[in-house]
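Supplementary Methods S3. Input chains for the assembly prediction are listed below.
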Amino acid sequence: MLQDVLAYLDKQHDSAVNRMIDLLKIPSVSTDSSYTKDVRKAASWVNTHLQEAGLHSEIHETDRHPIVLATNADAPKDAPHILYYGHYDVQPPDPLEKWDSPPFEPTIKDNAVVARGSSDDKGQVCCILEALMAWKKVTGKIPVRVTVIIEGEEECGSGSLHSFVEKHKDKLNANVCVVSDTTMWNQDTVAITYGLRGLLYFDIKLHGPDRDLHSGMYGGILANPCNELTRILGKLFDDDHRVTIPGYYDNVQPVTAEEQQQWDKLDFDEMDDCLTPVGVTQPFGEAGYTTLQRRWARPACDINGLYGGYGGEGAKTVIPSFAGAKVSFRLAAGQCPERIAELFEKWLHSHDLHGCRWELTNFGGAVPVAVSQNSPYMTAASKAIEKSSGKEPVLIREGATIPVVGQFKEDLNLDSLLIGFGLIDDRIHSPNEKFNLDCFRLGYRTHAALIAEFANLQWWT
Amino acid sequence: MLQDVLAYLDKQHDSAVNRMIDLLKIPSVSTDSSYTKDVRKAASWVNTHLQEAGLHSEIHETDRHPIVLATNADAPKDAPHILYYGHYDVQPPDPLEKWDSPPFEPTIKDNAVVARGSSDDKGQVCCILEALMAWKKVTGKIPVRVTVIIEGEEECGSGSLHSFVEKHKDKLNANVCVVSDTTMWNQDTVAITYGLRGLLYFDIKLHGPDRDLHSGMYGGILANPCNELTRILGKLFDDDHRVTIPGYYDNVQPVTAEEQQQWDKLDFDEMDDCLTPVGVTQPFGEAGYTTLQRRWARPACDINGLYGGYGGEGAKTVIPSFAGAKVSFRLAAGQCPERIAELFEKWLHSHDLHGCRWELTNFGGAVPVAVSQNSPYMTAASKAIEKSSGKEPVLIREGATIPVVGQFKEDLNLDSLLIGFGLIDDRIHSPNEKFNLDCFRLGYRTHAALIAEFANLQWWT
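Predicted structure tokens for the full assembly:
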């Protein structure tokens, strides 16, 4: 039966591309309220296509953007239950002037579709939709129990998802979650991602004088918040580029010898495969670790933004009344966001502020994720990928965070299979985001094959 | 004769206030090209009133805003030659919502006129104009040689002044320059400012990856420009809050024992007179110096702005391709802007940038100014102030920079007398800028008395 489904999918590739392009035309930017109607339009598009796959699909209202929830009521009751997760919202497209073609006018270039959201995550959502629709079309029904959640707030913090999951917990008692929002190892090799870093994000604002001051009259006689902020942030790292916050590394899990052996086989070149493509000329980071270890298994601390005083063209001689920074931590397996938040706040307060004061905003975080490599669904996924791509997948971790994965683990005690079809150079969150059409093809084929493997699985044994 | 002039000035105080109000109604904002016509209107107003004082006055075109230049051709050839300098342009009025009355609808409140430019510098320019007009009206002619330059670009960098001075050098061979753009020591005490700090202003921009990157995928494996910028700027000061740039303090002139004695008599309270009014709770700065020493005689280094990455509301997990800062130096007597620029650039390049690169923009600077306290015109000014105010002036320095003073010294080898009538709380460059009417009265009386003292002076001896 899988062969029939794959043959059907092959035949209707062009229509699948056109469907994806339809979805990409909708500017569903979730962070910007001027796009609210478009976000809703994208939800509606997804809902319609889930219904085409024979699912009972509904748009659920939330405090912000709707969540699409679909199930196949006609599935065999004793079949494995798969929860699919994806998001139909996209990042803002700016800076617009850096796009070679308009972000919401999808354009085929070099065998890829160029559009905001193509790789993250609409193209990958379409891979799931195409697989489900093909099974329905070719065989009349999807042979596993399926629940699909496609949300519209992933790019603005998934604020509505937790209460939605709590409310619909009874429908979400799946055996495994499948998330397609990651990348392939390379264009020939599908990856199953079994580890993700967590995240903790702060806005730290240092207040000084009660108004902006003239730097001639006040320069040198009072604590300038810009000076003090950089003085303190300048102490975040030691000479080995390790974070100096006491206790920061306490619970970081070391890489096992078995994992390291797998990674050594990956044939990863830090310059060619990672740094050179983004214009970086030398590796950098915590001393004593390789680039892959730093990215996957070591925590990072990044200042994501600096603000305060005058940042425009030319000169303005101001001592600003405040200065601030966005500071985030990518947490390695073993680290807990709440604990690191506590340590960071304590560290910030441990410095002499010379009369300035902190205003700290913790935007919360996400736990790091580590999924067992030896589960039956991991094995099933490997088989499916071998069938769809002709090649064994590699097992990798990822440096980024997919908060929903940790959340499903915490709220539903559900492990996730992360199988994505993006490429590392897809420019997600950047101008000229793209999604390769061969990856798209591999994506829907793999999801179709996954369904067959899951259906064969004696899940409950 | 001075008594007649002063009596006349007393009688026509209300008309003088009305004239000042007329000028304040013109929104001559020089930085914003939408005000270009108003800037010209203010130049024309000044030109007309200089003509009323019997001067030959003309509006001179420049590449940007006109300069008004006036001379009294009928002055005795062997009298001292005084160059007056002021500016008729003003700072932008925003934030408009913070003004209690509209910035260009002058309003009398608490014995002060509230309007943009009232203290900086239109009210002070009017003090000079009133004195000149009164001498002309009462005695038929001004008893000294007078040249007046009132420019329209002081608030946007005085870009046209240098070439104008070069072009008109032959007319500007004055004995001394009188600048009225500073403050009194307090409402009872006129100050002669004999020292100004210089200025050097840089934009330093650190470039990293060739695009903005996702901090999950790239966090911890490459040099983040925000991290690196704060690391380097964090080293600008040592634990004694001294600038660490090698050679920075080399040529700073120490405060003489005589000066220190004068300063000790000033009855200056660093908290009450300076820090508390701007919401600062503790003195801060270079160890081993008092607040007055730090402000007047020690160089300062301030970060006037920080930029790079995400500075908006909420969170964005970006590693930006660049980060930057505005860094300025207030130079103490003895320091040279070119030399400090060289040392700073060298210091910036001395740090390991881990593959990042600097883009440095030097916005140039202004030399610090120190005028002899023992010149005959300083003595004449002291006498005049005693006559007009009934009290000896104090001799002070100022932490701020008036670039034209250094420029006149360099271009014309001309020393300046800085006698201003602003008050420290006049909110110049801020909403609700004001100019006290008693200060206005004292201002025109003092300028009238100065003319008498200069006329009495055997300048050439």
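The longest strand of chain A covers residues 198-207. The mean pLDDT of chain A is 95.
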